[in-house]
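User: Can you predict the 3D structure of Regulator of cell morphogenesis and NO signaling? Sequence below.
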Amino acid sequence: MTNLIESKQKLGEIVSIFPASSEIFNKYKIDYCCGGHDTLGEALTEKNLSEDDIILELNEAYGKFIDSNSEYKDWRKENPLDIMDHIIFTHHDYTKKELKEIDSLLFKILKVHFSHHGEELLKLHRLFGTLKMELEEHLIKEEENLFPLMEKYFTSKDAAALEEINQFILDTEDEHDVAGDILKEIEKVTNDFKAPEDACNTYRLVYSKLNALEKDLFTHIYLENTVLFEMI
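Assistant: Sure. Here are the predicted structure tokens for Regulator of cell morphogenesis and NO signaling:
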């Protein structure tokens, strides 16, 4: 089999041509969102993973994807205004809802399970509180500042807005990195989102929601860093 996915390709590019590769990257904790500009080879070396094995796995999955004739959306070919709408109404709305729900549930299990899992839950509560604050402020800045500026640029090609947009993008990517670092700490504290054996259903639900939020944020950040911001 001729490899279609190679070590020299950037992670973001691989996800663009083969969206399901994100599942494989998630499995091996390969950062394709904030690290979307890194090559696959660089990422595998950093994780001390076998390049031959992972590339084989990716190409086998990609081959099945091609053979299935499945349709997918290559966001790099879409209108940037449509991408921003998709980010807001799909990822921003989901993030806002989940942050609120997880916050309430996490406080509940902190109170109920403090006697048995206090240390872990206190760390998680603090980390999530920081993540929630960072993300809520981040989403507002995108919706009220960055995206309107980008919309103005894409519709009028006003070059005067470019310098301001580029500075916003740098700040936004820095904030993405901060959120990514907090999520990595949450992974450690939760043992990769594995609830304790004696956990109740609410406890397990919190971990499941955190895991789903992380995966959605990876897609969200990938769309911004690797697709939308590259259109400027």
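The chain has eight helices and no strands. The first helix runs from residue 11 to 17.
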